[in-house]
Design brief:
It is a single chain. With about 200 residues, the protein is of the alpha+beta class. The protein has a single domain, classed as 3-Layer(aba) Sandwich (NADH Oxidase). It is about 35% helix and about 15% strand. A 4-stranded antiparallel beta sheet has the order 1-2-6-5. It has a two-stranded antiparallel sheet with strand order 3-4. The protein starts with 17 loop residues before the first helix and ends in a 9-residue tail after the last helix. Belongs to the nitroreductase family. This is Nitroreductase family protein. One of its GO terms (molecular function) is oxidoreductase activity. Pfam families: Nitroreductase.
Length: about 200
């Protein structure tokens, strides 16, 4: 269910598939449960992300039950809890930092690709996702018993979008897709800073 006219807020400089524009990060979540088959398809998409040396460093700790979500709530910031406590699924994204005893320099890069695949599949499945870093990383590590050889990357809320009017008033004004920098802002020719 598309509750926001994305084209009002996002205009690409070049033609691209609409899935890239339609993926954004709403905060208004319905408490409607996500069927297991649909949720599993998100992680199936993440599974096929590119990975250096096929290392596949990504891991997802998923909270679907009330008890699991309440455990996650214990380390989420007060601000983020105001909206994400309604999300039916929370997932902490972590990555394995080393391979064969040596630091694996692209573990975060590869895990970011897996997250991107998950987010696009969620959008195609009628779901929304909202990644966040507004939580206590160390407390999450302790509560979820995450070994030190895994980096904590981000937390993501997953579910069905709800009407913005169900958010606290201060968040309703922010409940729309953001624009992005122009290509000229982040593409350099030949060397850093060269336009």
């Amino acid at each position: 269910m598309m509750l926001t006219d994305v084209k009002t807020y996002r205009k690409p400089e070049f033609e691209i598939d609409e899935m890239f524009l339609n993926r954004w990060s709403p905060r208004s979540f319905s408490e409607k449960e996500v069927p297991t088959e649909i949720l599993s398809s998100l992680f199936e998409a993440a599974r096929w992300a590119p990975s250096a040396f096929n290392f596949q460093p990504w891991r997802f700790i998923v909270a679907k039950t009330n008890e699991e979500r309440e455990t996650f709530h214990s380390f989420i910031s007060e601000f983020n809890l105001t909206w994400c406590k309604k999300a039916p699924v929370l997932s902490l994204i972590i990555s394995k930092k080393a391979k064969d005893g040596a630091e694996f320099p692209t573990h975060s890069f590869d895990t970011g690709a897996a997250w991107g695949y998950l987010a696009l599949q969620a959008n195609k499945s009628g779901l929304v996702t909202h990644p966040m870093t507004g939580f206590d990383f160390q407390k999450a590590r302790e509560v979820l018993e995450i070994p030190e050889d895994y980096a904590i990357e981000a937390l993501v809320a997953i579910g069905y979008q709800d009407e913005k009017e169900k958010l606290p008033e201060k968040l309703q004004q922010r409940e729309h897709p953001n624009e992005r920098q122009s290509l000229q802002e982040f593409i350099f020719n030949g060397k850093f800073g060269s336009k």
